[in-house]
Amino acid sequence: MALNFLKSVPFFLLLAVVMAGDPDILVDFIVPVNSTGKAIDGCFFTFTGMRNAINPDYPSNFTATKASVKEFPALDGQSVSFAFLEYPAGSINPPHTHPRSAELLLVVGGTLNVGFVDTTNKLYTQTLNLGDIFLFPKGMVHYQSNDDPKQPAAAIAAFGSANPGTISVPMSVFTSGIDDNILAKAFKTDVSTIMKLKAGLAPKA
Predict the structure, then answer these.
(1) Distance CA 177, CA 172 (A)
(2) What pLDDT, on a 0 to 100 scale, did the predictor assign at position 1?
(3) Residue 2 pLDDT > 80, yes or no?
(4) Are 114 and 99 spatial neighbours (Cβ–Cβ below 8 Å)?
(5) Rounded mean pLDDT, 163-171
(6) How does pLDDT run across 77-88, given as a tens digit for each residue?
(7) Whose CA is closest to 81, among 65, 67, 91?
(8) 121 phi-psi bin (left φ>0, alpha ψ -120 to 50, beta other)
(9) From start to end of the chain, where are the E strands?
(10) Which helix (H) or strand (E) covers residue 183, if one does?
(11) Which of 25, 54, 132, 145 has its CA 20 to 30 A from that of 186?
């Protein structure tokens, strides 16, 4: 179904551009150190990692297939990266932030409810349909939710950095080793509640 969604979207909508956040480079492109002595050709500038993501089947959980500098070294210094996001029915992309870039989200299938919180603690929300684009400002905590209990959704995210970074709010707060007493005081609850929250986020065996 994801492939059919993409076919229904004009190509120019996929070419989202966001404000660059990376330093300018003084060369055309950056060749990785481990490529010294190797011939650079069109393969270096080609990323094939989306082939498995763009297919008729959806994963059982929310999945982000990234094309950042880690996966696609040619992006180094180019101030751009992408991600293909798949949302099974009823799934969410939990609250998170990208510290080095804004994000432009293009819905290519289904419907998404999205939102972000600014530095005054104001929440901005919107329901997005096929072809809609939403901006998440740089560094703001944001989320996406597919509230449809039957239909999946898909989106493409464009970033103005080759390495925008992702900080998950639940994971960074409850799985990073912050003392339980500190968290209990911060959330005005007790340690046992904090421990239950941590247990729910622990990797499944």
Answers:
(1) 9
(2) 55
(3) no
(4) no
(5) 95
(6) 999 999 999 999
(7) 67
(8) left
(9) 63-67, 81-87, 92-97, 103-109, 112-117, 123-128, 133-136, 141-145, 153-159, 167-168
(10) helix 180-186
(11) 145
